[in-house]
């Protein structure tokens, strides 16, 4: 039993030692690949800037879409449905209807305007106050202004709410301008599709740029790679520093993209402030939050790793030592 325990202990110790050696080897090659980037500063900086600027455009468009959605949500929450009641509806019946509408889960706010209040407001705004005094009866119906909740303010949900209100027996007609809501949603969806298309093309270009950069680095070290293979180095061992180079390109390029997007957000905030002041309103442009920054850097790392992987799989395998 003692010998068995000792053997198990030795196996565990050996396994831990191998894992530590494996991690140290990766760490050493990762730091070494960063040194390789440093030894070719012009090529490295140009590649990093191209990668960062390529990712800045879709990230900036995403920021604009996010802010556009925030604005549209504010507009949607302010949209109202005008519910016109039948002329025969009494004031008591109208108030009972208001209480029922308040219980709708899709309704955020309800405002009741009686027929007399509507007539007085029409007199004040139309300029025909004296002429309207000769009317024997009030031609205007009582009106209920219904403000939907944010969820119910979307075009389809607002249309369903309008239909539900018109089914009430006291209601003569409901009115909601759905065209601008539909157009706003269509424009937002179009921008999202454009962002997705541009992002896909730029991501492909980033992969090709990184792949070409790694390819040139491999060709520059062709003789050294051939010697390493001659002394028994495996393809995976030779590929590893180049893969780490792609990761470093992604990390640094992603940081450049984050910096560019934040600088654009700061610059555009001043211009938007001047525009919103003209309309006596305020709007603060939202930049990328922490999770979006990490996602952008992670996407850049993934693209850098993909480009370097495609390049090393093809070109390192093609290099074989030749006997002189």
UniProtKB/TrEMBL annotation:
<feature type="transmembrane region" description="Helical">
    <location>
        <begin position="293"/>
        <end position="312"/>
    </location>
</feature>
<comment type="subunit">
    <text>Forms a membrane-associated complex with FtsE.</text>
</comment>
<keyword id="KW-0812">Transmembrane</keyword>
<comment type="function">
    <text>Part of the ABC transporter FtsEX involved in cellular division.</text>
</comment>
<dbReference type="Pfam" id="PF18075">
    <property type="entry name" value="FtsX_ECD"/>
</dbReference>
<keyword id="KW-0472">Membrane</keyword>
<dbReference type="InterPro" id="IPR047590">
    <property type="entry name" value="FtsX_proteobact-type"/>
</dbReference>
<keyword id="KW-0997">Cell inner membrane</keyword>
<dbReference type="Pfam" id="PF02687">
    <property type="entry name" value="FtsX"/>
</dbReference>
<keyword id="KW-1003">Cell membrane</keyword>
<comment type="similarity">
    <text>Belongs to the ABC-4 integral membrane protein family. FtsX subfamily.</text>
</comment>
<dbReference type="InterPro" id="IPR004513">
    <property type="entry name" value="FtsX"/>
</dbReference>
<feature type="transmembrane region" description="Helical">
    <location>
        <begin position="247"/>
        <end position="273"/>
    </location>
</feature>
<feature type="domain" description="FtsX extracellular">
    <location>
        <begin position="80"/>
        <end position="164"/>
    </location>
</feature>
<dbReference type="InterPro" id="IPR040690">
    <property type="entry name" value="FtsX_ECD"/>
</dbReference>
<feature type="domain" description="ABC3 transporter permease C-terminal">
    <location>
        <begin position="198"/>
        <end position="314"/>
    </location>
</feature>
<dbReference type="GO" id="GO:0051301">
    <property type="term" value="P:cell division"/>
</dbReference>
<keyword id="KW-1133">Transmembrane helix</keyword>
<keyword id="KW-0132">Cell division</keyword>
<keyword id="KW-0131">Cell cycle</keyword>
<dbReference type="InterPro" id="IPR003838">
    <property type="entry name" value="ABC3_permease_C"/>
</dbReference>
<protein>
    <recommendedName>
        <fullName>Cell division protein FtsX</fullName>
    </recommendedName>
</protein>
